[in-house]
Amino acid sequence: DAKTTQPPSMDCAEGRAANLPCNHSTISGNEYVYWYRQIHSQGPQYIIHGLKNNETNEMASLIITEDRKSSTLILPHATLRDTAVYYCIVRVATSGTYKYIFGTGTRLKVLA
Amino acid sequence: GAGVSQSPSNKVTEKGKDVELRCDPISGHTALYWYRQSLGQGLEFLIYFQGNSAPDKSGLPSDRFSAERTGGSVSTLTIQRTQQEDSAVYLCASSVMGQGAYYEQYFGPGTRLTVT
Fold first, then answer.
1. Which residues of chain A are within 8 Å of residue B48 when distances are taken between CB atoms?
2. How, if at all, do strands A106-111 and A9-13 pair?
3. Is the peptide bond before B8 cis (omega within 30 degrees of 0)?
4. Of A112, A111, A105, nearest to A39 (Cα)?
5. Which chain A positions have a beta carbon within 8 Å of B109's beta carbon?
6. What is chain B written as a DSSP string?
7. Given pLDDT bands bounded at 50, 70 and 90, which one contains residue B101?
8. Which residues, listed in sequence order, are joined to residue A48 by a DSSP beta bridge?
9. Which of A30, A64, B63, B69 could tie A71 with a disulfide, CB 3.0–4.6 Å?
């Protein structure tokens, strides 16, 4: 199974862009990269996903390197409510569907 | 609509007792997943259900752990003879089936299990 490596923690000033890196050097060609976040005492919440192209939605942007060995989640204007643990996940196929392989995540603290 | 629900939200049990954790997935979601999150750790995959069958049980840590799903809906995770190392938050997720490009697991709030 592919695994991810993330820095354990990061700080970001409110209103600034938060750039969260992730290494997934053993990812296979058909395995997607997903990002979820977990706010204290809640279940993980979906943010964005991608295969090889950069992606953007209302929450964030995902930049994937050409060799697919790393990616960066960008929160363009971080707010205090974005303080959470952010998980970079590789989705692997299993028996007709998929399962997520979670890393230990990055604890993002947005500072006022 | 209603999301994934889990019960109880908190469970404290004595070492050696059995516990049952319940998950109600989103209606129409045929895939159901159990994960475990120990304090300060990431999520660890336990088991996955496709309908009522479990094609992937690879994450169950020991034979004290079992799970079932009935009617393609509610699932129960049972831990027998609980140990202190079983203390964790147990998270359930559900999704639609298939291997399309657009796919998302929806997580419940979790059950916090404390074994004393």
1. 94-95, 97, 99
2. parallel
3. yes
4. A105
5. 41-43
6. ----EEE-SEEEE-TT--EEEEEE--TT--EEEEEEE-TT--EEEEEEEETTEEEE-TT--STTEEEEE-TTS-EEEEE-S--GGG-EEEEEEEE--S--S----EE---EEEEE-
7. very low
8. A35
9. A64
Question: What single-letter amino acid sits at B57?
Answer: K
Looking at residue B103, its pLDDT comes to 67
pLDDT digits (tens, 9 = 90+) for A22-52: 999 988 888 889 999 999 878 999 999 999 9
The fraction of chain B above a pLDDT of 70, given in percent, is: 93
Tokens standing for residue A80: 């205090």
Q: Which of B42, B101, B108 sits opposite A104 (nearest CB)?
A: B42
